[in-house]
Specification:
The chain contains 5 helices and 6 strands; from the N terminus they run αβαβββαααββ. It is of the alpha+beta class. A hairpin with a 5-residue loop joins β3 and β4. α1 packs across α2. The longest helix is centred in the N-terminal third of the chain and has 20 residues. The chain is elongated, with a radius of gyration of 18 Å. The two termini are about 35 Å apart. About 25% of the residues are buried. It binds zinc ion.
């Protein structure tokens, strides 16, 4: 279960920061990329389970999906992954869902027409906000 390793890793990292700062954590926001192929509900359940007895026990923890962003390397414009693949056929969208790198084979930059696209964010999971009190 990949999610378990990820969630314990995040809680460990936050615990270390809180200890170093010698502060209590009041809020943590965890952003799960839409292309990260994690089960967001499982992440939420694991956070609830694993934070007991840690510095996060009394903190507000928000787990939310983060939309993927594709950037055109030619003109520098950024586009939402969803809006970029929206005009494609269902088959193509399904393929891209599993192999997001293929986005540049199927789509081109709506602004300049270049196919030199890269996925800028939305593939990982990260702590996007942390507040202490
Ligand atoms: Zn472009």
């Amino acid at each position: 279960m990949h999610e378990l390793v990820i969630v314990s890793g995040i809680i460990d990292a936050i615990t270390q920061v809180a200890e170093r700062e010698n502060k209590k954590v009041s809020l943590v926001r965890i952003a799960v990329g839409e292309l990260a192929s994690f089960d967001i509900n499982l992440i939420r359940e694991l956070v609830e389970l694993l934070r007991k007895g840690t510095c996060l026990e009394e903190a507000e923890v928000i787990v939310e999906e983060e939309g993927a962003v594709v950037r055109c390397k030619t003109c520098g414009m950024s586009w939402g992954f969803k809006e970029l693949v929206e005009p494609l056929s269902e088959d193509e969208r399904e393929m891209i869902h599993f192999l997001p790198e293929l986005v540049s084979s199927f789509s081109k930059c709506p602004s300049c027409g270049s196919r030199d696209l890269e996925i800028e964010s939305g593939r990982g999971i990260r702590v996007s906000q942390i507040e202490f009190r």
